[in-house]
What we know:
Blueprint: H1 2-13, H2 21-155, H3 159-172, H4 175-178
Helix pairs in contact: 2-3
Amino acid sequence: MSAVAALPTVLAAGGITDINPGLTIWTGITFLLLLFVLRRFAWGPIVGMLDERERTIREALEQAKHERLQAEKLLAEQKEALAHAQREAAELARRSQQEVEALRQDLTARAQREADAMLADARKQVAEELGRARAELKAEVVDLAIDAAAQLIKANLDTKAQRTLVEEYISQLPREKVS
């Protein structure tokens, strides 16, 4: 009950709206002293910390911007390198295809030349064989004519008899000579 008993005494000393000049002066002095102490010892370090924090944030933003620009630059360089590599690959493929085509044409031309040479050799051999066969046939015909003439001279017969004699002679020849 003592707290309840003290309440009317405090209320009797002054109300909330009452102005107490001593209390007001001491409150002002305390406030000014607090401002001086805060300004002297706390305000500078607090403002310094805030300035340091602002500088750190600004530098972090600048660093992030710089890194973003570098990343964009690297990305552009990689894209250019990729495009360059694709162009080189396309050029290499085109050159390879040209080389393959040139090689194919070279091989085709070489095969054609070899075929033409073989055909010319074959024609030459056929012509030589034909010439030899004609020479052999001519020699055979000459031999036959000489034999027939010898037979005709021996018989010295008339035309009908000569024809009969030649036909007999031809029929007596082996089939290989006549063919």
